[in-house]
Design goal:
Blueprint lengths: L2 E12 L2 E12 L3 E5 L6 H8 L7 E6 L6 H4 L2 E4 L11 H11 L7 H8 L14 H13 L5 E5 L7 H15 L4 E6 L2 H7 L2 E6 L2 E7 H5 L4 E6 L2 H8 L5 E7 L2 E6 L5 H10 L4 E7 L3 H11 L3
Parallel strand pairs: 3-7, 3-8, 5-6, 6-7
Antiparallel strand pairs: 1-2, 1-4, 8-9, 10-12, 10-13, 11-12
Helix pairs in contact: 4-5, 5-6
Length: 299
């Protein structure tokens, strides 16, 4: 697969503060790549460097395996700040103005309006738009130049649940057209629903990079309870297929080793005289793994 972006030991210092510390990433064509981390982790700093808004202190990066010149940046659509258009113009007029400023010969404005889902309100003045409408129009504007890559900084920030769902749907729609998406976010559930790959940052350092599904692999668990929790714990400790046991809120959460099935554990418990009152499969979440990574890397 074509490499869309590579960074090598990218660092950014503000005096004694290290905003970014030797960050190396690889994004390939077709990825929906999430840069995830708490406030102050270096997400926005990373995107600012990649888009030429700020300079790195050290390290390097390359777009499309060709470097970082202005010509290459024309292949990149970006949305870093809050949408800002002329409030007295309607959506279509704002898009037409942007296309004219960028000297786009064939901007296909109507096509971008349909893709971004702004057709219902494109003739209304921008000043009347809700936050979600503004975000959709901004995404339409980034698509005018037919970018190969879309870079988004916290695209659902400040949106209500309906707006978040709308933008999520739009990002997936854009990705399905073959556009590579690189986005920062602190909304773990949204990253899990949208992204194929993720990098987890903390205090400028990378804690993890890879497929979202790989990060979640093995995080599924089984919640078990019995009227006799002491006996249950003793019997559980004798099952060879258990990777981890955690006691939590009146239940045991069990993670199984690869190759072992929940049905095997259930049969083992019944055979050993356990009266099971609760047995539930729990799907792993990005939030659990994210918090686990942060706890493992406390300064």
């Amino acid at each position: 697969m074509q490499k869309i972006l590579t960074t090598e030991n990218l660092s950014k210092n503000y005096g004694i503060l290290k905003a970014l510390d030797k960050l190396s990433l690889n994004v390939t064509k077709g990825d929906v790549f999430g840069i995830l981390g708490p406030n102050g982790s270096g997400k926005t700093t990373t995107l600012g460097i990649l888009l030429g808004v700020t300079n790195a202190t050290s390290g390097s990066y390359s777009w499309f395996e060709k470097g970082k010149n202005d010509h290459l940046r024309k292949k990149i659509g970006a949305l870093l700040d809050k949408p800002n258009f002329y409030p007295h113009l309607n959506g279509f007029q704002n898009l037409a103005l942007i296309a004219d400023i960028k000297d786009l010969k064939s901007p296909k404005i109507h096509e971008k309006i349909e893709i971004s889902g702004v057709s219902k309100f494109v003739n209304r003045k921008f000043g009347t738009y809700s936050t979600g409408m503004k975000q959709r129009l901004a995404l339409a504007a980034t698509l005018l130049g037919e970018p190969e890559v879309l870079v988004l900084d916290e695209p659902t920030n400040g949106l209500d649940p309906e707006g978040i769902a709308d933008v999520r749907e739009l990002i997936l729609k854009i990705a399905n057209q073959g556009i590579t998406v690189i986005m920062s976010s602190h909304l773990l559930d949204e990253v899990q629903k949208v992204c194929t790959h993720v990098a987890v940052l903390k205090s400028g350092k990378k804690l993890y990079e890879g497929q979202v599904q790989s990060l979640l692999a093995g995080s599924d668990g089984i919640e078990i309870a019995s009227d006799n929790m002491a006996q249950l714990e003793k019997v559980l400790s004798g099952f060879i297929g258990i990777e981890q046991i955690e006691k939590k809120q009146g239940t045991f959460k069990v993670r199984l080793k690869d190759g072992f099935k929940a049905s095997e554990l259930s049969s083992f418990l019944i055979t050993n005289g356990i009266d099971i009152t609760h047995f539930s499969h729990q799907k792993g979440s990005l939030e659990q793994e994210f918090l686990h990574l942060l706890s493992e890397n406390r300064a």
